[in-house]
Design goal:
Elements: H1 4-20, E1 24-30, H2 35-38, H3 41-49, E2 53-59, E3 73-77, E4 85-89, E5 94-100, H4 102-107, E6 122-125, E7 136-140, E8 143-147, E9 151-155, H5 158-166, E10 171-175, H6 176-185, E11 189-191, E12 198-199, E13 202-207, H7 214-229
Parallel strand pairs: 1-2, 1-3, 6-9, 6-10
Antiparallel strand pairs: 3-13, 4-13, 5-10, 5-11, 5-12, 7-8
Helix pairs in contact: 1-7
């Protein structure tokens, strides 16, 4: 049996080797609305850069202790992350959007104020069956307020909300990044833009540990490098 000093040296050598070639399974709990993280390129580029790390992503909107759940890290909006966690920005400020299809708006006058939503067919989100539907958050003259719309359709599936809005089922509400490609193509039309403020975006978060696992350090560095690349001015 190795004595303690030799065991510590061997552990340090193994840790250094792992830092140079991170490996193992990385478990991440990600909210379903984190479009930037779940869209594909971020995870795909990380997997390509670190072929010996296997990635297990659980998409969940439940709020729970990621450490007790056996996860290495999580991705959520900054405002709902526990204070004792370390958080690294994935993307900067976000903005929500209320959208509907041109066909729906052709037969229903577009809302001019958030209170007008009470007269519309709304497609709303809830994180779980036993949780109340999401209240739509707005701001007027610097004062925040929310509306408890009466949803015609409620679901915990963001993609279903998107497909229903594209099909003309009504007005839906969510992070603008989710709808942006369809807004640009004209398939969805934003409404109530002047009442929608910016808010802190999504963060990768994890517990503070004295010796961070190299696989987690690799993910943190990857996220930071992608974030930095957003602010690099391209050559002329």
């Amino acid at each position: 049996m190795l004595d303690r000093p030799m065991a510590e040296i061997e552990h340090a050598l193994e840790f250094t080797a792992a830092e140079n070639d991170p490996r193992g399974q990385l478990r991440i709990a990600v909210t379903s609305i984190a479009e930037e993280f779940l869209s594909g390129p971020l995870i795909a580029s990380f997997a390509k850069a670190f072929p010996h790390i296997t990635i297990d992503v659980t998409v969940t909107d439940e709020e729970f202790d990621i450490v007790a759940g056996g996860f290495d890290a999580g991705v959520r909006l900054g405002e709902v992350i526990e204070k004792d966690m370390i958080a690294v920005s994935i993307i900067g400020e976000q903005r929500e959007a209320a959208v509907a299809s041109p066909d729906y708006l052709a037969s229903h006058q577009a809302p001019r104020h958030p209170r007008d939503l009470m007269q519309h067919r709304c497609i709303n989100w809830r994180p779980a069956a036993n949780v109340a539907p999401h209240r739509w958050e707005f701001e007027e003259n610097g004062i925040p307020f929310d509306i408890a719309v009466v949803p015609h359709i409620t679901t915990n599936d963001l993609r279903l909300m998107l497909r229903l809005a594209l099909s003309g089922a009504g007005v839906t509400f969510g992070v603008r990044d989710t709808f942006q490609p369809y807004i640009q193509s004209g398939e969805l039309v934003p409404v109530l833009e002047e009442y929608l403020p910016h808010f802190p975006g999504f963060f990768l978060y994890f517990p503070q540990r004295r010796n961070m696992a190299p696989k987690l350090r690799a993910l943190i560095d990857h996220v930071r490098s992608r974030q930095s690349a957003r602010f690099v001015t391209p050559p002329l």
